[in-house]
Design a protein that fits this description.
Length: 208
């Protein structure tokens, strides 16, 4: 009888490098579940969640092929707190159902060294209960701004709007079990992943 697998939630603010860190754990052998990927599944054409979004936001949020235009929806909700709240109320329960099913299946599976749940809105969605430990990816605010502007081709004002729409980084850090600082070179962040991987494997051995 093996002990249940450990689920590590990875979160952090926009352009902090969460996906890079999550993928580094996956390369080490972790099973990766991405809330962004689940969000895409939750609003697939024909899904109940997409129908609710259409009712709330109208046909402008659809692409010609019937899929959700995430870029258009992003522009709408980042500029309007009420619209953002409406989006969350529709999508979070649908994502939660998928996440719980996927994570619980992996938690009971044999031969998995670690499960990583990458969730940008882990705290905002009240999803801490889905994971055993929480890693917050930290970033220097000025570096975050420059990365976001470059990555998404945004003006400084538009980038700040997206940053300010999120829970402040300090609040997330206060609730973290572990922190990786991704303000420097990628190699430094990957060294921190290596150390945390070893630490978590040691803790797993103690549980087993």
């Amino acid at each position: 009888m093996h002990a249940d697998n450990l689920i590590l939630g990875i979160t952090g603010n926009i352009a902090s490098g969460k996906s890079m860190i999550a993928e580094a754990f996956a390369r080490k052998g972790a099973a990766l579940v991405s809330a962004d990927q689940l969000a895409r599944e939750a609003v697939a054409p024909g899904s109940p969640a997409l129908k609710k979004l259409l009712k709330r936001f109208g046909a402008r949020i659809l692409l010609k092929n019937g899929e959700l235009n995430r870029e258009m929806l992003g522009q709408i909700v980042f500029a309007d707190a009420q619209a953002r709240e409406a989006l969350n109320q529709i999508t979070h329960p649908a994502i939660a159902d998928l996440a719980v099913t996927r994570l619980q299946h992996l938690k009971r599976a044999a031969g998995i060294p670690l499960i990583v749940y990458e969730a940008p809105l882990l705290f905002e969605a009240g999803a801490e209960g889905r994971v055993d430990r929480i890693l917050v990816v930290k970033i220097d605010p000025e570096i975050q701004l420059q990365r976001l502007m470059r990555r998404d081709q945004l003006s400084e004002a538009a980038a700040w709007q997206r940053i300010r729409a999120q829970m402040p980084q300090q609040e997330k850090l206060a609730r973290a079990d572990y922190v990786i600082d991704n303000s420097g070179p990628v190699s430094e962040a990957l060294d921190q992943v290596e150390r945390l991987w070893s630490q978590l494997q040691g803790e797993r051995s103690e549980i087993d």
